[in-house]
Amino acid sequence: MALSESAWQRGFSCEDLAILIVCRGPVRKEAIDVFREMGIRRLGILLSEKDSIVYPHALAPELREMTPDQIHRVPDYTGATKTERASRMDEIVHIAKTHGYNAIFAGYGFMAEDAEFVATIEGAGLVFVGPCARTQRAAGQKDEAKRTALGIDVSVTPGVDDLARRTLKAKWPGREALLEGARQAGLDPSEWPKDFDAAVDRAIGASHEAGVDLFTLDELSLQCAREVVSLLEAHPSRRIRIKAVGSGGGKGQRIVPAPAQDDGAGREAAGERARELLLEVLSEVKATGPGDNKNVLLELNVETTRHHEIQLLGNGSWCVSLGGRDCSVQMHEQKLLEISITQEGLKDEIARARDAGRESQARALSADLETLQRMEAEAERFGEAVGLDSASTFECIVDGTQHYFMEMNTRIQVEHRVSELCYALRFVNPQDPTDHFDVESLVEAMALVAWHKDRIPKPTRVPRFKAAVEARLNATDASLAPHPGGEIIRWSDPLPYEVRDDQGISIKNPDTGQFMRYRLAGAYDSNIALLVTAADSRRDVLEQLAEIVRVTKLRGLDLETNLEFHYGLSNWMLSQAPWAKISTAFARPYLTLVGELSQAAREIDLDYLEKKIFERITKQMDGVADSDGAELFEALRKASNAKRTLLRRPLHALLHKPHVLFGWLCRHRDCFGFEEGELAWKKNPVDVLADVYEHLNWDMRPELPAAHCIWDHDHELLSTAQSFYRGLERRLETTDWTRLSARLADPQPPAGLDPALWKRCLEAHWGHQLALEALNVLPGLAREVGVFELRVGDDLEVHIPERLRDPVHHERMRRVLSPPPATQADTIAAVSGGMFYAREAPDRPPLIQKGEHFEKGQPLYVIEVMKMFNKVPAPFSGTVDQVLIDGADGTVVTKGQPLFRVTPDERVVQEDPKEVAARRQAFTERVMGWA
Amino acid sequence: MADSNASDGPVALERPRLDNPLAEPAPPPPAEMSRTVQAYEQTLSEGHRLRARPREAGGIEQVIRQHAKGRMTVWERIGVLTSEPPTVLFQNWGPNLDGASLVTAVIRIGGRDVAVYGHDFTVRAGSMDATNGRKLARHFRMAGERGMPLIGMNDSAGAFVPAGVGGLDGYADAFTALRKISGVVPSIMCMFGFNAGGGSYLPRQGSFVIQPENTFFGLTGPQVVQSVLGEQVTPDELGGPGVHGASGVADLTVPDEVSALRTARRLLSYLPNHNSESAPFRSTRDPIDRATPEIDTLLRTTFGQPAGFNTPFDIHIMIQQMVDHGDIFELQPGRAPNTVTCFGRIGGHVVGFVANNSAYDSGQIDVGAALKNARFIRFCNLYNIPLIFMEDTTGFRPGTEQERLGIVHAGRAMLDAIIDVRTPRILLLVRNAYGGAYASFNNYSTGADLVLALPTTRVAVMGPAGKEFVFKKELRALRASVPERVRSRTRARIEAGADPEAAHAESESEAQAWLAQQEAQFAERYERELMNPREALSLGSISQIVMPEELRAVLGHHLELMMRHYVPGPFQGVQREFH
Question: Which of A82, A193, A815, B484: disulfide with A198, CB 3.0–4.6 Å?
Fold first, then answer.
């Protein structure tokens, strides 16, 4: 920008910005890169202790390419208490000022949405690269935000946003009563407005300032019950969400169950329940003290929802929407996949659907387009109303054709890349329309508006890609439960179209160029990286994502990630409908289905399968010309043996990777069918097998270790078979497998083909198809489990089979996907001799007591050895039935002495191996269709 | 599928085939087209056949068998170590001209010549006979003479039984040759497959053993154990990586073959080619004077815990902060985690770290830790690698268990190994350094070049229990005064009108509380006055105090200085009685 020929453009240079980055995670690395590219010379990062010292092999990887004068340190970003937080803010300001920074970028850290923090920075004369304190306040308080939204015709969920006010009005129904009550509470209402409603508002504000309450919790909860009853009268049998104004991050919210029956008694009961939940909500957000803001929102709970959000950028006077993102694929309230929704993309897709005659799909997409247009317009209005002067997200839930505004996230979110790949921002010189520049990075745009504020004209959005997607790579096991502590040893380089925001983990050792080990400490959350890619349609973008996940090699010790989950999911979406209307309730049934598949796959006995198939092969000897059985038998044995690893290795891998198997089945569901219960391949099984290898990323690549590709002899066999069939297809002029295989069943040579050659061809066909029956196990499993019953209708709605909705079944399948560690032990014994302590220090409570549950790895006791105090973690999870040490702290114990009697969560179940074998063999027969 | 009606039709099938009948036949080589085959051409093609023989000897069925076990062939393993073609030596040894089920070669790894050998399991299960034993011995001698490090890829069923005593002699030849190059060139042994007897001893003579999952090695296989002792045990329980990783018989355990080979390459980058040179220097972009404030934070956080200065912490974090880009390579992580032995670089120089780790068993030195340290120290000493010792231990571990295991001998082995060190060596006192552990852990008297101490150092003859000796008189007087105290207080209480029995009980408990408080004061005084670096500083046992933030800078500076004056060469001198 500073080098631009246009003086107008040069005026928007940001080189004088000196930015201190106060956040961690992927956005820190991204910000460093973006700011460097912008030519910002002074750039530093603020490390917190957790970044580097808590775990070995978990240094902030960015340090590898920064110089010591760019690195500053604080114990943590936020402090544990209110006073610590205030002093931390001052410390951060002090660090910025003494090291020559004039701006602070807080990314999406805890501080980024903290109006107080932002105000401190602004007050110190520093530039905050992010929404200003005013926006933070206006959008941060849920009740005020909702009122603002209502005022500018933004769609919000039906409900009550001013329970506190209503309580007060019910208590003192007129201005005089109110003033009298206020005086008794020690307030001075002499200056309060004449208007009753305005006076009520003033009363609430004054009570917060003075730290007194004008109503009791009991009065508040009574009002809550009344409001719930009247909401239920207007909207029968609905669930109602209770939300404290200070709620967030999953805290401070409860749902009132729908009344058992739709009558007065039912509604009353729901109201009573709401009273209890209200108290829980308030104590969860710590708003039960005098003068705390006790306002609570009551909203209809939207049941089948999709989670859409609109990316915004503003400068305080203008606000521009950069399209939407669908974030509905979620688990444990954590987003897993974010996919762009843009008007251009939807219009293209509608046109495609119309061309293909898929009318109901076109209608479903048109509904989404209208919703998106409404959301974008409302988002821009709301952004302007709250004076948005940076990047923010306008979050909505979408229910059918309705949408409701939930809240605005006043910060940059990790998934912003999805939007910046869809739209660039074009800034045009008002004096000269040919003089313009484009900004393709939101972080860059944030710096630009932070530095130049009102000077910068309203940009237009310029479409870049029609679709983009972001997959969150998390350290989670197959059931998507967190699995911290693993260590990454190698990670293949990104593909050309892959944007990998990995916090710098892939930055190689600058001295050796080698990948450096990285321990996934799990100090904050399980996120490792964001995998982003963009293309011209949603189908293409999902194909790219599936390809990225397929070829990514991520190896480590005790490392578990959701990479395979993403593979399965992207292939499911591709096989069903890329625009499927996935709801936030989708992930659990989906995982349950994969769990069912996993359970079935584990019951397959591959040894038995191999043995039986050979038996079946040798039975075919009867009809063959050669009377010398022994010779033929030997030939069959040899040919079967030659295929042993070719078949066994990929099948074994698929049966042990349920998400990959699921992805394969989705991807290949058109390759097979069942006719009268009989499996029929619509594609040559030889080619199906080649697909399996490709799917597993085992293609032959000489530069890789042999064990990481198809074995050389298997490759030779498979490519010989493939070239044989390609030659045959040319000769017989068909590529259709059904026709080809029918022709190959006919011993009569085709016209013009030498009978001797035809004989060799038939023998080759016999040989190449030999033992490939083993592949039938894959479609067999799909049928057994009912894999394709989770499907998307013509109207793009997802149909979830009833069995996949059962929470008990969910839990069972979760355990199948990720079996918890089991033990036979019923005691916890001392790991070493020494002095036993139940607590960390005399003034602390015991680490664990009778009746309490403990998780694996949780410290259970302290053992003192030679004056060193070692905390000892639980070897498995369970519940303490009895503490076996009766002495006081300091009791001497010997190694192996039982300390606690426990009931482990998971006991090793002993099964008779013979029974297991018989069961697995019978199951294998059934899946193969032999039974 | 074969068609069951095949016999009815015009073509009848004989047997399945796995070729492509439609493929264009390859044109014959021009030589054969133009002339009749002469004797010379015959010898040439025989030459080609002979050359190809070792690679094809096993046959495809054997290769598939090897692959079915998830194992690579020896040729594929070599391909993981290097992308350049190997220089194969003693190509056709053996009566069958197949290389005698053993491949010996020189390969290039990162510009260095490395001798490798690997059993070819597809040929007679990689077994040993007199021929390949001699072949191996010759290869070892060559590596020693040329100063090339050695990588072994062991995958052998043991001695070839039909070869009789010849097989045993073969092993003996190899044992002897490997012992003779031990200490001359470093060797890394990968354990693939199922190796018993000689197949275990031989690799363990090497410097480092790496074992992947799903492999076994040991004195004998489980069948022998079952028949001799009646013990039912799986190979994994008897000699899997879990067993050997914990005992130190395997220095490193890894998930699979590829990791084993890659780990071998990584380890090699820390080792010199031979004993007359230093380990590979690698200039670094990590500033040598980089401050290490994280170490300060680590200690602050640790000692801020309820247990104060008696809180364990993980020493890895400290080592990681000091080395170039935080990259360390740990050896024997699965054995005695109360001590850490690892390589790292500081300012580009390879350094061996020997560090007590208080995060496990208070960092006490037990038999496992002592032997682990001794072995690592000796290796560094022989191969010109400087050592940094980091001391934070409450001492050797006492008790019957340890005495029975021979802690005296093990501790002695560590002590002797330390005394023998002639490479540059530094001691960094981190916290606890008491008694015998201090005396034997690379202090000035045992030969350290430099002793540094963090301010948190607590050097003392004894740990906190030492107050009993230092304040012997005071404590005795204190305890002796208790009965009088009880008597006088009881009297006073009775005079004030209390019930005599209750008065006595009250006074008794009051006196005990008073005693505990007084004793605690002595303990506190002991910690304050004696558990610190002051006395050691005054005696010159510590050269200087070093602050946590400057650890890398100070160590790097001293190391640089020492390495400038160190001339690498073989470790020579009188052979001592013990290793």
Answer: A193
- Is B357 at the interface with chain A, CB within 8 A? no
Chain A residue numbers with beta carbons less than 8 Å from the beta carbon of B306 are 840-841, 844
CA separation for the pair A444, A38 (Å, rounded): 7
CB–CB contact B20 A724 (8 Å):
yes
A713/B64 touch (CB, cutoff 8 Å), yes or no: yes
The proportion of chain A whose per-residue pLDDT surpasses 70, expressed as a percent, equals 97
Cβ–Cβ of A761/B21 closer than 8 Å?
A: yes
Tokens describing residue A930: 């032999």
Calpha distance B135→B412 (Å, rounded) = 39
Residues 253-282 of B with CB under 8 A from A: 255-259, 261, 266, 269, 282
Distance from CA of B444 to the nearest CA of A (A): 26
Phi, psi torsion values for A577, nearest 5 degrees:
-165, 120
**Helix or strand or coil: residue A865?**
strand
Partners of A755 on chain B (C-beta within 8 Å) are: 10-11
**CA distances (Å), origin A641, targets A321, A612, A638, A765, A767:** 62, 14, 5, 17, 12
Report the alpha-carbon distance of residue A854 to residue A875 in Å, rounded.
10
Closest CA in chain A for residue B294: A53
B454: nearest Cα among B326, B296, B346: B296
Other beta carbons within 10 Å of A786? 14
Chain B partners of A731 at a C-beta cutoff of 8 Å? 22
**Torsion from C-alpha of A699, A701, A707, A709, nearest 10 degrees:** 0
- Chain A residues inside the 8 Å CB shell of B10: 747-749, 755
Work out whether strand B194-196 and strand B150-154 pair parallel, antiparallel, or are unpaired: unpaired
- For A776-790, the pLDDT digits (tens) are 999 999 999 999 999
**B195, burial (CB in 10 Å: exposed 0-12, middle 13-18, buried 19+):** buried
Q: For the segment B520-530, what is each residue's pLDDT rounded down to a tens digit? A: 888 888 888 88
Candidate from B64, B285, B401 with C-beta closest to A642: B64
Which of A284-288, A822-826, A876-880, B195-199 is modeled with the greatest confidence? A876-880
Has residue A639 got a pLDDT over 70? yes
Q: Taking CB atoms and an 8 Å limit, are A720 and B257 in contact across chains?
A: no
Angle at the Cα of A737 from the Cα atoms of A734 and A743, rounded to 5 degrees: 70
For residue B9, what pLDDT is reported? Answer: 46
Residue B312, chain A, CB below 8 Å: the answer is yes
Is B200 near chain A, with CB under 8 Å? Answer: no
- Which of A763, A839, A840, A889 should be substituted to probe chain B, the one whose Cβ sees the most B Cβ atoms within 10 Å? A763
Give the residue among B414, B312, B431, B400 at the shortest CA–CA distance from B369.
B414
Contact by Cβ (8 Å): B387, B442: yes
How many angstroms away from the CA of A443 is the closest CA of chain B?
29
Residue B429's beta-bridge partner residues?
B391, B453
Residue B102's contacts (CB-CB under 8 Å, 6 or more residues apart) are B93, B117, B118, B119, B120, B126, B128, B132, B135, B136
Looking at this predicted complex, what is its ipTM? 0.88
Long-range CB pairs of B434-438, under 8 A, 24+ apart, other chains included: B434/B393, B434/B394, B434/B395, B434/B458, B434/B459, B434/B460, B434/B461, B434/B462, B434/B463, B435/B395, B435/B460, B435/B461, B435/B462, B435/B463, B436/B395, B436/B396, B436/B411, B437/B365, B437/B391, B437/B393, B437/B394, B437/B395, B437/B396, B438/B391
Q: What is the DSSP string of B203-256?
A: HHTSSEEEEETT-EEESS-HHHHHHHH-----HHHHHSHHHHHHHTSSSEEESS
Q: Measure B348 CA to nearest chain A CA, in Å.
A: 9
Global pTM reads 0.88
